[in-house]
Amino acid sequence: MDVFRQGYLSLPVYIPVPNQNPLAPPPPYAAVVGQRNPFVAGPPGFPANPPPHPGWGPGGPLALPAARPAAPAAPAPPAAPAAPAAAAPAGGDYPPGTHIDGNRAGLPRGVNYLYPKKHTTIRVVKGNFDPLSSPRQEFDFWAYKVPTILTVSDLIHQLGAQAGGNDKCGVTELLEVGDGTWSKGVTIFQKDDQKKQTLAAMGWDEARGTTKPVVWLKLHKG
């Protein structure tokens, strides 16, 4: 069948109306005069009722969809890891006992350290400052956890008193009196037999720093 000649495909056209409100819904479509309306009395296959005008519904235009919510902000990137602490300089004043076998880089990769069971707490006055002769003054000190099985001789050596003679390398115990004042305790040099005793035998045991005061020492390097 020649559908063009029969007029079945006549397209609807919009006929403007003068002074029409531009916001009002458009008027119904109308077929051109002399042509057959494809939605009315058409051949099989055409809908009986025309579909609604897209974008318009009963009583006016359809509501526009709500604005899409903004996408959540991207999470902040993780903070960069803190830079590792700088290694002690070769000429620094860190005691040799703070390093395993004198290795400042620490233990080899994959190697762990098995600690002794008991430790005491020792604080060592740094530098040449003498709290006995300069009471009520602030000073710097090292703080250590030290195995109680260590001998006094090894402690003196590990704290850095190595170069002087046996009568010059040693430690003096400082007893804190209060109000920034100190009294002198025992002094042990490498020449003394007492150097062979362990820290526990000296009374510098695991109770120090817990139920008893910490051990304060002044190092003599000779």
Largest sheet: 5 strands, mixed
Radius of gyration: 48 Å
State the order of secondary-structure elements, H for helix, E for strand: HEEEEHEEE
Number of strands: 7
Give the structure's gist in a few sentences.
By secondary structure, the chain is mainly β. It is 5% helix and 20% strand.
Explain what this protein looks like in three dimensions.
By secondary structure, the protein is mainly β. It is 5% helix and 20% strand. It is built from two helices and seven strands, in the order αββββαβββ. The strands form two sheets. The protein has a five-stranded mixed beta sheet with strand order 4-3-7-5-6, with helices on one face. The protein has a two-stranded antiparallel sheet with strand order 1-2. The longest helix is centred in the C-terminal third of the chain and has 7 residues, at 152-158. The protein is elongated. The termini are far apart. Residues 1-8, 30-34 and 82-91 have low confidence and may be disordered.
Question: What keyword list fits this structure?
Answer:
two-stranded antiparallel ribbon, disordered N terminus, mainly beta, 5-stranded mixed sheet, 222 residues, elongated
Set out the fold topology.
Elements: H1 3-6, E1 56-57, E2 60-61, E3 119-125, E4 141-147, H2 152-158, E5 169-178, E6 181-189, E7 215-221
Parallel strand pairs: 3-7
Antiparallel strand pairs: 1-2, 3-4, 5-6, 5-7
